């Protein structure tokens, strides 16, 4: 669907298509445990978040040089543009690469080489969000933040991802405090597989401005009331929720109930190479499955810009494009 939209929940490592994974593996002399692109694509069946993360981290092994990260981001931006994305706030996982001795300098350098030209080449404004791996110790997150200090002008916010259950936001309170001192904004995955109490913690302890996923918030009416009252955006990822079995089918997805409750929901693709489609396709299929109205789709697009970290003049320009859009 080509309505102008912002994508606010997108892991750049999750845009690694099998074809590019094989090309980079060959370029870097890495052997993948799959014989072909088709065999790799066939492995994209998951039981839960962890089974996905196992493959996701395994495939990051093909990313080694600045050029690899530039190629990855360029490929995402080209696809995003074709799906009506006008602005993207992009997650990256420096700790996943550091584990293979790829320094943050290489990751940020490579991604920035692409993003610095995204406006002129693809007509997309962009920002980078540094994510901490919540299944690693808080000390590792703090060290990552310190290592990122020379590149703070290239980063808009910090985020929190990876295995959620058993790794509550409270573990990262001090890390987020330090990030705020450094002038960074804050988001966090919460309420994807984990309970609504993790959403409370992300709000109260990490003081995040958006919740990534947040679908389990609906289990707690008091939390929903707060999210509505404070207009805290939720970056919802329908294909991801179905593929990771957080939701049975697209027709069961809570997005419509979220909109009906007055929540500031947005639609995003999360890890589109793994979950069956990019953000426009998420919007098309979810709209059909849930019977969303054109007004609701326009609200989702409007929400995406309102929830973004854009400066006010640019936000206003994009919002005018949303209002002018004809279905
Ligand atoms: N959906 C997701 N949840 C948590 N961590 C992730 N890393 C990449 N995708 C993720
Ligand atoms: Zn995610």
TrEMBL record:
Q: Which GO terms describe its cellular component?
A: cytosol
Organism (species): Kitasatospora atroaurantiaca
The protein's name is: Adenine deaminase
Which cofactors, if any, are listed as required? Zn(2+)
Q: Extract one GO molecular function annotation from the record.
A: zinc ion binding
- Provide the family line: Belongs to the metallo-dependent hydrolases superfamily. Adenosine and AMP deaminases family. Adenine deaminase type 2 subfamily.
Q: Where does substrate bind?
A: 271
Q: Which HAMAP family match?
A: Adenine_deaminase (MF_01962)
């Amino acid at each position: 669907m080509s309505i102008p939209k912002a994508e606010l929940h997108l892991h750049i490592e999750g845009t690694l298509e099998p074809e590019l994974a094989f090309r980079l593996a060959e370029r870097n002399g890495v052997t993948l445990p799959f014989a072909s692109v088709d065999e790799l694509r066939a492995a994209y069946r998951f039981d839960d978040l962890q089974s996905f993360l196992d493959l996701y981290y395994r495939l990051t092994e093909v990313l080694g040089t600045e050029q690899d990260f530039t190629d990855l981001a360029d490929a995402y931006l080209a696809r995003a543009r074709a799906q009506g994305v006008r602005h993207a706030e992009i997650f990256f996982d420096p700790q996943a690469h550091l584990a293979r001795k790829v320094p943050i300098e290489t990751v940020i350098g490579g991604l920035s080489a692409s993003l610095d030209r995204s406006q002129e080449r693809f007509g997309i404004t962009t920002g980078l969000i540094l994510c901490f791996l919540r299944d690693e110790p808080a000390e590792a997150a703090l060290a990552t933040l310190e290592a990122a200090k020379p590149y703070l002008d290239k980063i808009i916010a910090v985020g929190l991802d990876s295995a959620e259950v058993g790794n509550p936001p409270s573990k990262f309170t001090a890390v987020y405090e330090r990030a705020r001192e450094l002038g960074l904004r804050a988001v966090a995955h919460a309420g994807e597989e984990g309970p609504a109490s993790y959403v409370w913690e992300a709000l109260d302890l990490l003081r995040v401005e958006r919740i990534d996923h947040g679908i389990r918030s609906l289990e707690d009416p008091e939390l929903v009331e707060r999210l509505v009252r404070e207009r805290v955006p939720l970056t919802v990822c329908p294909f991801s929720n179905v593929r990771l079995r957080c939701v049975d089918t697209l027709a069961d997805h809570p997005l419509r109930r979220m909109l009906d409750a007055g929540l500031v929901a947005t639609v995003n693709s999360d890890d589109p190479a793994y979950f069956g489609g990019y953000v426009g396709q998420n919007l098309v299929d979810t709209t059909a499955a849930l019977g969303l109205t054109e007004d609701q789709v326009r609200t989702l697009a409007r929400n995406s810009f309102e929830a973004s970290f854009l400066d006010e003049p640019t936000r206003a320009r994009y919002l005018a494009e949303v209002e002018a859009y004809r279905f």
